[in-house]
Amino acid sequence: MMNRIYVALLLLFFAVLQIEAAPISGTYTINPSGSGSRNVKTFNAAVQLLRDSGVNGAVVFNVADGKYSERIIIPSINGASLINNITFISATKDSTKVILDSKNSGKINNYTLLLDGAKYFNFQNITIMRSDSVNAIYARVVEIAGSKNISFNGCIFNGVKSNTNYTVVIASDYNSPADSFINFTNNIIRNGYFGVE
Prior knowledge:
- This protein has a single domain, classed as Pectate Lyase C-like.
- The chain contains two helices and 17 strands.
- It has helices at residues 2-19, 43-53, and strands at 24-30, 39-40, 55-63, 66-69, 72-74, 86-90, 98-102, 113-116, 119-124, 127-130, 142-145, 148-153, 156-158, 167-171, 180-185, 188-190, 194-196.
- By secondary structure, it is mainly beta.
- The strands form three sheets. It has a seven-stranded parallel sheet with strand order 2-1-3-6-9-12-15.
């Protein structure tokens, strides 16, 4: 009887080990209407896949045209490096066609995209915005905290119109480790009181 219990426990242990997801690499899609093992429906589902699996090669998420109403937190991802970088890019290369948007005018969770210790991420040809009401004091489009090797290329950062102390993109929050190698190339920053702080 005891031998059966030990065997059952061993089988359960090995089954749990096999459930752990293998690291990913290659091209994936973000498409709410898509299907298949290399498609996820939302940005948050893509981040969850990265968190659960890690990476063992470069990963590209081609994002289908559309408006994605999400608030996203991207942490450090296992295996990410200069070579094993992670890219989110508009599938049509048109930054006006892929829109990542969030609403929240309170002091907490006041961002659309938070890079929280993220490393080796690229964002290309995507609009990241806040559609809060006019003069929403706390609204930020992107917050970068303790992250490095992040690039934004050909993106549109569309903030809230404001006459107050409001920043569209904020890096190096005072409570976070310093950010490094944050690159902005060929982007448009709209609205806000400060563009990048």
